[in-house]
């Protein structure tokens, strides 16, 4: 379903606004792409022409958000990315975006991949999908987490040709501050709302043990300088303590992963007012072709509980992301959010996946594609149910403020999906 009524009044719902402690009886009036009123005022202000939907006592909440997705990877298996014809991975990314929206995720940060055209098609209303905050190609050093060239091929810095991952805009391998600066500016030119750098070893890459330090302080500062000059920030892929500390000292504002960082390093995140965008991984979320890669995956998963516990103790600003990497994994998105209830209350997890992630997305500042900032204040909040906010909302069966598990089965439990005032799914009758 795809329609945008001039006015939409949703009644008979209990509203979780993305900020509070519970779902309270209420109503919501949507006009255009914004929430116009809530509570009794929604009924009072609704025009006669308004389309009225009765929620039947279900819960209404802001659209869910995911701070770490890879739409290009979710559309095509890794082997296919290396052999597919030009354009095919991006067309498949569109279908991955559609499914993501129908799982209830109405805004996401894409943390590596050329999704500029995908975003444009979605934003123009030509195809369903979430709001996209793109990083474009992630920046990696030679022999870093984003270097997918063959070991026998010379690196670009020594005269070699770009790998297939670089050709399709998934990664950009750059060495030295000048090349990092050029690579960062290239992604900003292509529409990045924030930059992504690989500052430590990775699970899926073959040349870099997890504990490796990637990019020198000078290289990291070059990326940070480019981002700050454009009014935005840098996020860094890194697991271990030394890499996290180097990134923070260089001015990186968001750490992606961090599951191997020690307590002192987690405390530094709070001291630097930086975000931790981590993922509640289980070993079975990803499948790797070699024992070496599988062992790295186990190490990361073993650090999830410890990292979340330390982050909460130190008051670190937490974001929720999934970092799923293949079509067969994409359906786990809601289940990974539900998994947070092992360590957080359902309401705490929902706040993170709505208003919390939205605050991180809005750090893009001048590069935020869905925001106009006047006198330093956003004109249209995201991730909340309140007047003036962007009309991204869900109506669900059950009560996710008490049981996050209802979000693990979106096909059965999502009764209404609205993004920007447009109805993309409606089974309310």
UniProtKB/TrEMBL annotation:
CDD domains: Met_dep_hydrolase_A. InterPro entries: Amidohydro-rel (IPR006680), Metal-dep_hydrolase_composite (IPR011059), Metal_Hydrolase (IPR032466), Metallo-dep_Hydrolase (IPR051781), OTAase-like (IPR057744). Pfam families: Amidohydro_1. Residues 59-363 form the Amidohydrolase-related domain. This is Amidohydrolase family protein. It comes from Saccharopolyspora cebuensis.
